[in-house]
Amino acid sequence: MKKVMLTIVALLMINISYGQFTLGPRFGLNSSSVDFDPFTVGGETVSSGNATAGFHAGVFSRITLGMIYIQPEALFSQSGGKIELSDNGFQQIKELEFNKLDIPVMVGTRFLKILRLQAGPTISMLLDAEAKGLEEEIKSGYKDATIGYQAGVGVDLWNLVLDVKYEGNLSTFGDELFGFPTDQNQNQWIVSVGFKLF
Fold first, then answer.
1. How far is residue 55's CA from residue 98's CA, in Å, rounded to a whole number?
2. Residue 144: closest CA among 164, 118, 126, 165
3. For the segment 163-182, what is each residue's pLDDT rounded down to a tens digit?
4. Long-range interactions of 85-93: CB distance < 8 A, separation 24+
5. pLDDT value at 4 more than 50
6. pLDDT tens per residue, range 45-82
């Protein structure tokens, strides 16, 4: 293990020396939704609704190895989704809100000098979850950590890094809502802006 860590540190130092390592802050907006099969509890039908807007902020780095680059990120992300509560024709719209630490690791390639294609896994660690306007505790119905994927395109303009990505789940995000068993998945579109410090 110690040899592996030393090798990684050595590679990072080589990349920094040859200008192949990039580090900087990034932030942006995301549009997310929570998808699940409708269910009825207490005479009320619960179903998934429209997407909601959120944000993310953190840091990214990029290691370039010839035509390929690896771009790990660490981001605080606020996302969510709307749910519909229907009872005898009366409908309420409520928002679910999730605070997470997202760690995507993108692998990509550049073409036409400024454009990029990328995809890779992401690990999400749930920090908090709530249903706005409802007193029910919902965090226990969601997994502490999930694995997903991201894929998208990017543009590098001078020191600016622009990315548009889609994120989906590879594992179930939640298995319970309001005490009712239901498999839930969260999908989102992500638009990010980063700045290369070096």
1. 11
2. 126
3. 999 999 998 898 888 778 88
4. 85/44, 85/45, 85/46, 86/44, 86/45, 86/47, 87/43, 87/44, 87/45, 88/43, 93/49
5. no
6. 888 889 999 999 999 999 988 889 999 999 999 999 99
* Sign, Cα dihedral of 67, 68, 74, 79: positive
- In eight-state DSSP terms, residue 51 is -
User: Architecture of domain 19-37+56-78+97-195 in CATH?
Assistant: Beta Barrel (2.40)
Where along the chain do its domains lie? Answer: 19-37+56-78+97-195
Per residue in 30-45, pLDDT (tens digit) is 999 999 888 887 778 8
CB atoms within 10 A of CB 76: 14
Tokens standing for 142?
A: 């969601």
Distance CA 157, CA 173 (A): 35
H or E segment at 150?
A: strand 145-157
Distance CA 166, CA 187 (A): 8
Q: Evaluate if residue 5 carries a pLDDT over 60.
A: no
Closest CA to 75 of 188, 170, 174, 157: 188
- In this structure, the chain runs to a length of 198
What lies within 8 Å, CB to CB, of 92 at 6+ separation is: 84, 85, 86
